[in-house]
From TrEMBL, chains A, B:
Gene3D superfamilies: 2-methylcitrate dehydratase PrpD. Residues 277-449 form the MmgE/PrpD C-terminal domain. It holds the Pfam family MmgE_PrpD_N. It comes from Penicillium bovifimosum. Coiled coil: none annotated. This is MmgE/PrpD. It comes from the Eukaryota. Residues 13-252 form the MmgE/PrpD N-terminal domain. GO terms for molecular function: lyase activity. InterPro entries: MmgE/PrpD_sf, MmgE/PrpD_sf_1, MmgE/PrpD_sf_2, MmgE_PrpD, MmgE_PrpD_C, MmgE_PrpD_N. PANTHER family: 2-METHYLCITRATE DEHYDRATASE, 2-METHYLCITRATE DEHYDRATASE-RELATED. Belongs to the PrpD family. The lineage of its organism: Eukaryota, Fungi, Dikarya, Ascomycota, Pezizomycotina.
Amino acid sequence: MTITSNEETRTDRLVKWAAELKYSDIPDDVIQRTKDFFLDTLGCAIAGRSHPAVSAMVRFAAQMGPSDGKSELIDGSQNVRTSPAFASLINAAASHVVEQDDLHMRSIMHPATVIFPAALAVSQDIGATGEEFLTACVVGYEVGCRVGEYLGKSHYEKFHTTATGGVIGVAAAVAHLLKLDAIQTSSAVGTAGTQAAGLWQFLMDATHSKQVHTAKACFDGIFAAYSARDGLLGPRDILEGPRAMGAALVPGELHPEAIDQNLGKDFAVINSSFKWHASCRHTHPSVDALLNLMSKNQVTFDDIDSILVPTYQAAINVLSLSGNGDTVHQSKFSMGFVLAIAAKKGHAMITDFTEADLTDASLRDFQSRVTMEYNAEIDSKFPEEWQGTVIVTCKSGKVFKESTRFAKGDPELPLTRSEIEAKTHALAKYGGITDTAKVDSIIKRAWNLENEVDLRGFVF
Amino acid sequence: MTITSNEETRTDRLVKWAAELKYSDIPDDVIQRTKDFFLDTLGCAIAGRSHPAVSAMVRFAAQMGPSDGKSELIDGSQNVRTSPAFASLINAAASHVVEQDDLHMRSIMHPATVIFPAALAVSQDIGATGEEFLTACVVGYEVGCRVGEYLGKSHYEKFHTTATGGVIGVAAAVAHLLKLDAIQTSSAVGTAGTQAAGLWQFLMDATHSKQVHTAKACFDGIFAAYSARDGLLGPRDILEGPRAMGAALVPGELHPEAIDQNLGKDFAVINSSFKWHASCRHTHPSVDALLNLMSKNQVTFDDIDSILVPTYQAAINVLSLSGNGDTVHQSKFSMGFVLAIAAKKGHAMITDFTEADLTDASLRDFQSRVTMEYNAEIDSKFPEEWQGTVIVTCKSGKVFKESTRFAKGDPELPLTRSEIEAKTHALAKYGGITDTAKVDSIIKRAWNLENEVDLRGFVF
């Protein structure tokens, strides 16, 4: 007899649901939104393909992986096919570079950048269909985001939940593709959980761990699921057990109900947001509020004397780690710099953050006049709501205030298909893709994904 | 400007020492002991080669890795050569199955099972010499164990320090083999640290994470070092930074002085213990005390009515997780069962734990009469000393008490070379190796390791 009881745990229920979900169980709006996020992720991957972290992983795959395989890199210029573990490692790193991938708010994680690269690479490896791929992605979103929500915001203070919830979501998605039963899926999830890692320390010196986290969530989750199929046993109660993730990785409040409530009714895909701006997601509500305020009140960049941004604690924590933003990537984590870009350019798209801007005195001066301030009321609603408020004092002495409950791209204000297509073209252009017909053909395939029988060729 | 200061941190000093260590800097007793532990690890790997976790990883490597490579599996029956990441994955899993690998007490970790597989596989990949291999292993032991000691015993309550300290040690050892400079080594160590994971939850249901932890410490540490060479930047202050390992993974007391005090003077290799008994290391001091007591007082298995074992908290924590011990592996984590085996058979060697013993009524009855009890004085000395005390009440009514400060195999009582050779032969025999001349030839090579110019062929 082991100490683990035979009573069904919340994790058991989540795992069973994940193993048994069928395509026909999934509402059509969930399928449609999953396709939206899939296309969005392909664009992100191609935009991020030249980052040094991605190059290092391409080299790692060449040294440690096979010289051929069935899984493709979204960056076709590499002309590489490899095993799914390495293909997803690289694609996941690439898709998390430009800070344009999605967000599931309640869990504070970015599911797309881990779930799609893993599910795509494995689908190519085993010859899964579009329906099988989409079902696995819905499973991956659901399991990953529920784990992230269970771990909560005290976990997020030190840990990159996209990695720690993500690896579990990947394991569940891949287990579904491999047609593992509930017992095997439980092992996959357990083995994923005991590998869960990913610290925010890299924000302090602008190093490359953010891409390591998404890359390794894919690799490690694939390891967990393939190994579970081949007999490796993982701990069953990896979320709520006495030496499990909740106990070890969460100093504050846990949310156990998130693990299994409303399974099959409330879908993480539907609760995820698109990122419209190219900056850290914690800046988006404030950018929207500022742009609304400037438009409503005909305030210009030069009119603004200072901005006070009352916000929630997690935003202050994350946005305080990158200093003034010495690099383009870091600059997207500075509230002041992002608001400066938005105020000056009228948007904060991927092409709006440049090396030249880093030394633009007017932007740096504006940045120095932006202050974040903890607001208890806004914080009490986080992460269910990511509210944005800006209080703008003009050089004229006038003061304006504007708040947003939802950001553009949120579930309440999702991007339209034509906006997603425009964003994909912009990301591809940023990534150096000049063949727009190729981009159009990939867009067309994505919209028809449930009817695809071969998922190869999503390569720019 | 980033927020990270330019002042040298403790981690900087450790990394610099690691990057710059030369073979000629290492005292001869450290070299000799490193060779002892290397041979010991080879024996452990061959003894553990048939475990299902190892088989699953062999299969994973076949599916995800290359079909050839320069790095070997210690288990020659697999007839596999692969890339160093996969070879070390498998060898590290195999060497941590039979609970006979070494222990560094102050850090509560098993350095050999992660450092040697990684350093061996990489040495084979790059053609390193015996001297280069030994130097890298000394670096790996030192860095890994210092990190484990820094994290301390509150970390160990939830985390398997062999994994979390281990991945850093592996990164440092491999960085040394790859001749990375201090800056690159800092990146390797940082990327390793943001992957640090490994939870004790698996003890609850006897699943396979213990092998996952050592295997992945190797894979992830190799990833960190090779990627650092290829331009991937890792966070610099991964131990003491505000979002780093200490802050995120340690609820209690940290030991920052362990990171950099007495570098080059106090060697982790010399402070490591051999395991003589085949059970969890937390049972060893009590086994020694019991065997001494029985021998001194001519007490037999049948004479004993009950045993009280005053001990430190970490022993109670770990040994309380496996229930009565339903499997051979779990049975090595039951204080009562291990003492029963030792009392009945006079030793607790690898061949003393069998399937048949699990249903032996006399052992199970004896087991039920053993009780652990928290002892504040013993606990206050842990983990600097792992004391063992047993209070035996005989059926005659006589009561005996015996304590040990050091276990057989401890730095104060190390195994002799002939004992290590005997242990290696026993492990090989347990692993099904019948060619004892082959074992002798490997022993001979190990004792001459510093003069080897090609580290291939350590294959049973």
